[in-house]
Amino acid sequence: MAEQRRDARDAEDTTEAAEAWRDTPGPPVDEVRRAWGELVATARRTVAEGLVVGTSGNVSVRVGDTVLVTPTGVPYERLTPEDTVGVDLEGRQVLGSLRPTSELPMHLAVYRTTGARAVVHTHAVHATAVSTLVRELPLIHYMAGALGGAVRVAPYATYGTPELADHMLRALDGRSACLLQNHGTIAYGTSLAQAYDRTAQLEWMCRVWLTAASVPGLSPALLTPEQLAEAGERLRGYGQGAR
Fold first, then answer.
1. What are phi and psi of 163, to 5 degrees?
2. Burial of 194 (0-12, 13-18, 19+ CB in 10 A)
3. Can you give the chain as a three-state secondary structure string?
4. What is the pTM of this model?
5. Which of 14, 68, 118, 167 is a plausible cystine mate for 154, CB 3.0–4.6 Å?
């Protein structure tokens, strides 16, 4: 009974916050709807491509000073435009009645300290396995340069805690992605597409290293820091935007 009353108060509080948000300056409604649609599509993609099981990951995107984020415990295929969830940069809910993901502290820490516009967190199988074995992903491939350098592993802390967010920020220093020990991955970018691509690249590199390292009697050849730095420089000019 006490839990039901607490849930009712939470729902009332978030509804009042959503109503107040409509009366205060903020991002245009059309922009929020478009961003929410892209967020839901990205979240569903993490499940479809095996980076997440059920609702174990979370996705967010920043629109002005509002952070849209997946709600806690809701299967992504059920999300509709009416389920939009938004918080300000201090974590106060300003949009929607569903509760935000329990990993909100990690997402907000990224937005407060970087120029990120989107964050993707997953429990990808190979990346999570690597996080239990090493403190840094060995330099198995030059695409580490696209993430800023050798990918670090943030020490374990209970999910959803400020301690985990602090560990993550240290592992992300100078990087756009990291592993979370016994937990998963987090990556950010200037768009949801970029944040997702970085997540997928990290999972792929972890899979490559695990595959190579599993061959009996052989050890995978690794890049030197100098080779990685050279590749990183070339990657900055990669793509159609480079002329």
1. -60, -45
2. middle
3. CHHHHHHHHHHHHHHHHHHHHHCCCCCCHHHHHHHHHHHHHHHHHHHHCCCCCCCCCEEEEEECCEEEECECCCCHHHCCHHHCCEEECCCCEEECCCCECCCHHHHHHHHHHCCCCEEEEECCHHHHHHHCCCCECCCCCHHHHHHCCCCEEECCCCCCCHHHHHHHHHHHCCCCEEEECCCEEEEEECCHHHHHHHHHHHHHHHHHHHHHHCCCCCCCCCCCHHHHHHHHHHHCCCCCCCC
4. 0.88
5. 167
| CB under 8 A, 24+ apart: contacts of 49-56 | 49/200, 50/124, 50/125, 51/122, 51/123, 51/124, 51/185, 51/199, 51/200, 51/203, 52/122, 52/123, 52/124, 53/123, 56/122, 56/123, 56/184
Answer yes or no: 103 catalytic.
yes
Identify whether the C-beta of residue 131 lies closer than 8 Å to the C-beta of residue 149.
Answer: no
Buried b (16+ CB within 10 A) or exposed e, 137-149: bbbbbbbbbbbbb
pLDDT for 124-174, tens place per residue? 999 999 999 999 999 999 999 999 999 999 999 999 999 999 999 999 999
